Amino acid sequence: MGEHKGGNEGADRPHVRVAVVGSGFGGLGAAVRLRREGVTDFVVLERAGSVGGTWRDNDYPGCACDVPSHLYSFSFAPNYAWPRAFSGQEHIRAYLEHVVEVFGLRSHIRFDSEVVRMAWDAERLCWDIETSGGPLSADFVVSATGPLSDPKVPTEAELPGLGSFPGKVFHSARWDHGYDLRGKRVAMIGTGASAIQIVPAIQPEVARLTLFQRTPPWVLPRVDRGISGAERWLHRQLPFTAQARRGLLWGVRELQVQAFTKRPNQLGLVERMAERHMTRAVKDPELRARLTPGYRIGCKRILLSNTYYPALTRPNVDVVASGLAKVDGSTLVAADGSAAEVDAIVFGTGFHVTDMPIADRVVGADGRTLAEAWADSGMRSLRGASAAGFPNWMTIIGPNTGLGNSSMILMIESQLNYMADFVRQLDVLGGRVALDARPVAVDAWNERVQKRMERTVWNTGGCTSWYLDADGRNTTVWPGTTTEFRGATRRVDLSEYTVLRVARPDTENSGGAMNTETVEAGA
C-alpha cells in the first residue's frame, strides 16, 4: 500500500499520502484516477468486507438500476457484457469487482476498516484517522461514502411502538435473506425507488402485502430488454459503437434536464404519459385516485417500472394512502386511522442524504465537526468538493452534485478530474502544504447554485422530497447539465483557496514548535 512512517507523522501511526473512504463507484474511481496520476501511496478504507458500496448493501429482491447500463459505467472502463438495457444489482456489483481486478486496486483496500473519527492536525498539516481496523494519517482525504450508504429508519420517538413490534423489522438496504417472507403478512413502508422494485418481487410470495404510501410517486414505463449476443459482440469488436450508444443516452438526458431546471411547466406532457401508463394497468378508479400524485412530475425522482402498478392490483395487496403513524403490537396504524396486522415490516424509507453520518466524525481546523459546521447553513461546499475549514479534504458526490434524470457516474468522473488537479496543485506548490477552501468562495459558489435552483422543478414542483434538508434547502441536486458541471470542475482555481504551509521552526520564540503560515494564492 505504500504506507510509511515518517518523522512528521504521529508516533506509531502509518502514514499515506491519500486516504479514500469508501469502495463504491466514487471510491474505486478515485483509486483508479490516483493510479493514473502516478500516485501509489494511497489506501481505500472500506467498512465492509467487500467492495461495491450501495450496490453491495442493496441486494433486496428485484434490485436494479434505473439508469441505462451503458451510461452507468466508467468511461475509462466500458463494459461490453451488460446483459440488459437496465442491469440488475448483481451485474453492477460484478462490474465493480471487475474494476478492482483490472486496475489492480485490491492491495490498496483495507476491508473492515470503518472510519470512527478523523481530525485535522494543523501543525503537521495532515489528517489523523481512527478506524475500526487501526489508526493512520494522511496528507489528503477523499470522502467517497456517498449519500446512499446509511439507511434511515424511524426511531421510537418518530414511530411510537416500533420497539415492541413482535415480528421482523428491517430496511431495504439491510435485507434479511434469512427471513422467509413466504406466507407472511408484510408491510412495505415507503414508495420510493426501492419500494417499486420490492413490491412486485415479493407480492407473489407473501400472504398479504400492505403498502403504506405517504406520497404517491410518478412512474413511467421501463423500456428494458435483453442485450443480444450480437450486440455485445459488436461492441467488443467495434468499441466506437458502444461509445455511440453511450453518447446517445447521455445526449438525450442533457436535453431533458432543461425542462427540469428551466421550464418545469413543459413537463405536463410527461405527466400525461405517466397517467396513461397507470391507467393501462389500474382499472379501479378509486385505486387510481390514491396512486395519482398531486405535484409536478420530476419534483421527486421519477421512477421506472412495468410491474409496480400491476402488482398493486392483485387481490393480496392493499394500498394505504397515508403514512405510518404508530405500531400497536402487531398492528400498524396509519395517520388516517387505517390499520393492518402484519408479521414483518420492510422500511423503504431512504437514507441519510442531507445529514451524512460521516460528517459527525470529521473534525476540522477549528475543532468543529463537519456536521457542526453545516448545522446552520445546511450542507455546502466549493464545487461540490471542498468545505471551508477542512483542508486537504474533499467529497465525491458532495453537496449539490446529485442528478434527477441521468447517471451519477458522469458527475463522479467530473469530481475525479477536480481531485486529480487538486493533487497536481499540491505537487506544484511543493513541501508540506494544504489547500483550504476560502469561506467567501464557498459562499459565492453556493449562492450561484441556490439562485439557479429557484426555478427548478425540485424547488417549485409542490412536493417535499429527499432532495431537501430539514429546513427546506435543496442541498442535494445539481441545477444544470453534466456538461456544465464538468466545466466547473475541470481544474482547481487557487484563488478560491488559502494555501497553508508548515513554517520553519522559530526556535527562539516557539521552542522549535511547528507553526503554520497562511498564504493567499497569487499574493
From TrEMBL:
Cofactor(s) required, per the database record: FAD
Keywords: FAD, Flavoprotein, Monooxygenase, NADP, Oxidoreductase
UniProt GO molecular function: flavin adenine dinucleotide binding; N,N-dimethylaniline monooxygenase activity; NADP binding
SUPFAM superfamilies the record matches: FAD/NAD(P)-binding domain
Keyword flag NADP: yes
InterPro entries for the chain: FAD-bind_Monooxygenase_sf (IPR051209), FAD/NAD-bd_sf (IPR036188), Flavin_mOase-like (IPR020946)
Pfam short name (any one): FMO-like
Keyword Oxidoreductase: yes
Similarity comment text for this entry: Belongs to the FAD-binding monooxygenase family.
Function: Catalyzes a Baeyer-Villiger oxidation reaction, i.e. the insertion of an oxygen atom into a carbon-carbon bond adjacent to a carbonyl, which converts ketones to esters or lactones using NADPH and/or NADH as an electron donor. Thus, can convert bicyclo[3.2.0]hept-2-en-6-one into the oxidative lactone products 2-oxabicyclo[3.3.0]oct-6-en-3-one and 3-oxabicyclo[3.3.0]oct-6-en-2-one. Is also able to catalyze the sulfoxidation of methyl phenyl sulfide (thioanisole).
PANTHER family: FAD_NAD(P)-BINDING DOMAIN-CONTAINING PROTEIN-RELATED, L-ORNITHINE N(5)-MONOOXYGENASE-RELATED
Protein name as it appears in the record: Baeyer-Villiger monooxygenase
Species the sequence originates in: Streptomyces phaeolivaceus
